[in-house]
Design a protein that fits this description.
single chain; 133 residues; 2 helices; 3 strands; 3-stranded antiparallel β-sheet
Length: 133
């Protein structure tokens, strides 16, 4: 008669249940980190697209202006900020700030997201005189 084995199956199953529950909690934490990483990647991609949009707007203004010095950068920056950052339905509203700085025909486009290092993009337009060919 073996009386030492009594109740051993219950303890084994409780330990197995504990190990399984710890594994499930770890998997849930891993899933949460994965979702956070995917969201951060999406936000960073949006910031890059916003900077590219600023470049396109600068090229369009460059086409209209007779020379780099005549470009209405303030107006371009205001419209760009309004579209990407300031409107309530803007994609980066409340999450990022944008700025365009000019030095001659060179432009620095900076998109700063909350709690991230600012991303700076450089655009240099070809210099030309006020007279077009």
């Amino acid at each position: 008669m073996s009386t030492g084995q009594r109740g051993f199956g219950l303890v084994e199953s409780l330990v197995a249940l504990l190990v399984l529950s710890l594994g499930l909690v770890a998997m849930a934490a891993l899933q949460l980190k994965s979702l956070q990483g995917a969201h951060e990647g999406y936000q960073q991609a949006l910031a890059s697209v916003a900077a590219l949009d600023a470049q396109e707007r600068l090229w369009a203004e460059y086409r209209r202006a007779p020379a780099c010095a005549d470009m209405a950068i303030g107006q371009v920056e205001r419209r760009w900020r309004q579209y990407w950052f300031d409107e309530d339905e803007a994609l980066l509203a409340g999450d990022a700030l944008g700025a365009i700085e000019r030095q001659g025909c060179a432009f620095m486009i900076t998109v700063t997201r909350v709690s991230f290092v600012p991303a700076t993009y450089r655009l240099e337009l070809p210099a030309r005189s006020a007279e077009r060919p």
